[in-house]
Amino acid sequence: MSDAALPANGISASGKVIGPAPTDDTVNWRHWLGFSILLVGQFMAVLDIQIVASSLGELRASLGATVEEIALIQSTYLVAEVIMIPLSAWLARLLSIRIMFAASAAFFVVTSVLCASAWNLESMLVFRAMQGFSAGALTPLSFATIFFMFPRSKHAIGVAIAGMITTTGITLGPIVGGWVTLTFSWHWIFFMNIVPGLIVVFGVLALIDVDRPQLHILPQIDIPGVVLAGLFLGSLVILFDKGPENDWFDTPWITRLTVVMVISGILFLWRELTCRYPVIELRLFTDSTFAAECICSFVLGAAIVGSAYLSPAMLSTVRHFNSQQIGTVMMFTGAAQVLLAPLASYMVQRLAARVVLGIGLSILITSLIWHGQMTSEMGLDQLAVPQFLRGLGIMMCFMPITIVAIGSVPLADVRTASSLFNLFRSLGGAIGLALITTFQESRFDFHRERLLARVGEGGLAAEQWLTGLQQRIQDAFGSAPNPEAAALKIMNTIIEREVWVLTFNDMWMAMAFYCGLSALFLPFLPDRIRQQPDE
CA 393 to CA 266: how far, in whole Å? Predict the structure, then answer.
C-alpha cells in the first residue's frame, strides 16, 4: 500500500491500523493497542515452547509414557514451529498479515484445547505438533508488523518491547508451567491460552489491516520447496534435539537422519536458488549485512536459550531451589529488560549500530563470565547483579541486529526478513542447547574423575576428615544408621555438588567465548540503518 493511499495517521475510517503513522505526533492509542495485542500472541507462542518442561512428570503419569517418550512433547512443538517460521512469510503475503496472524492465533487456541484433552501420548504428540505449527507464524509476524505500523523513530522501541517478550517468555516458560501445574493441574498450562488467544484473534481482526492479500501468488506455490524445507529443518532440529541423549552417531537412526538432513538441505538450497517463485527468498542473504545479522541472531539465540536453561538447572541441581526461588532470581533478568528497554532504544537511535552491539556484547560476556565464577554457596545476593546485566546485555544485542536486519530491506521483503531472522534465532537456541547438553556430560565426567583423584591423593587428611565425620554422625545418632556408610554418602554428595558447580562454571565460560565470536561481525554493521524503500 503506497503512502499516498494512506490517511494522515495510518488509521482507516473503520478504526483499523492500515499503515505506518508518518510522524510521532500521528501515532495514537490504536497503534499501541494493536501492537500490544500482537505481543500477547507472540508471548503465548514463546511461552509454550518450554511451558511443559516443569510438568513432564505429571504428563508422564497421566499419559502412561516413559521418560524418553514424554520428552517428545517438547520436541514435536519445536520441530513444527521451526518448519512454520520460514513459511509464514509466504503465507502472510498470500493471506495478509491480519488474516494470517488471526488464523494462527485461532488455530493455536483450538490446538491448546486439544492438548489439554489428549487421552494418550500419541494424541498429545499430534496436537502438540499442530500447536507448534500454529505458533510458528506469531513471532516473525509480530516483528514484521512493527515496520508496517510505526514511523522509523518508533522502530527501536517496538523491537525492544517485542525482544523483551521473546526473551522473558523463554525464561518464564518452565516457571509458569511448574506453578500452574502445582496449583491446578497440567491441563491448565494449555487451557490458560484460551482467553488471551481469543482476545488476540478478535483484536487483530478489529485493529490491524496493514497490508492486502496477494491471492495471485497461490498458483505460484513452490510445493517441492515446502516439502524440502520441512524435511531439512525438521531433521536438523530432531538431530540436535535427540543427538546428545542418543550418543550422536553411535546410534544408527541418528546417522540415517543426518544423511536425510544433508541431502534435503542440498536439494532445498538448489531448489530455492533456481526456482522462479521460491517459497523462501534466500536471495536476501546476498546482502552481507543481512547475512551477518542472521548469524548474530543465531549466536544470540543460543545465548538466550542456553542461559535460560543453565540458570534454573544450576540453581535446582546445586542449591535445590524450588520454582518460586528460581523465579525470583530469574526475575532480575526480566526486570533489566523491562526497565532499561527505553535506554537501549535511545542508544540505538543515537549511536552507530556496531557501537550498541559492541556495548551489549561486552555487558553480556561480562555477565556470563561472572556466572562462571560461582560456588556452591551462591544465592540471590551473588546472582542478582549478573542476572540483571545478562538481561541488559541481551536487550542491547538484540535491538541493533534486529533493526538492521529487518529495517534495512525493502518493505516488500520485511515479512521474509523477519521470518529468516527469527528462524536463525530459533535454530541457534535448539543447536546451542544440544551442544550445551553434550558439553555438560563430558565436563561432568572430567571433573568427577579429577576430584575423586584429588580426594585419593589427600591420603591421611581425607581419611581423618572422613573419620571425624563418622564420629560426629555417631555422636548425633548413635550406632544406627551405619556411621561409616552415612559418612561416605555425605562425602559423595559433596563431591557431586562440587562437580556440578565446576561443570556449570565451564559451560558459562564456554558460552561467553561463543558470544565473543559475534564481535567478528561488528564490521558488517552500518553506522546507520539504510533507508527502507517502500513496497
Answer: 36
Cβ partners under 8 Å of residue 110, min gap 6? none
Ranges in the chain, pLDDT < 50: 1-4, 531, 533-535
Is the pTM higher than 0.70?
Answer: yes
Q: List for the chain the helix, strand, coil content (%; round to 5).
A: 80, 0, 20
Give the tens place of pLDDT for each residue, 114-133: 999 988 888 988 999 999 88
Handedness of CA 39, 44, 47, 50 (dihedral sign): negative
Q: Which alpha helices (DSSP H) does 117-210 contain, by range?
A: 121-135, 138-149, 155-183, 188-191, 194-207
First to last CA, the chain: 7
Other Cβ atoms within 10 Å of 188 Cβ, number: 15
Contact 319, 371 (CB under 8 A): no
Buried/exposed 165-184: b ≥16 CB within 10 Å, e otherwise? bbbbbbbbbbbbbbbbbeee
Instruction: Give me 499's grid cell.
Output: 562437580
For residue 17, what are the β-bridge partners?
Answer: 11, 208
Phi and psi for 119 in degrees, rounded to 5? Answer: -105, -15
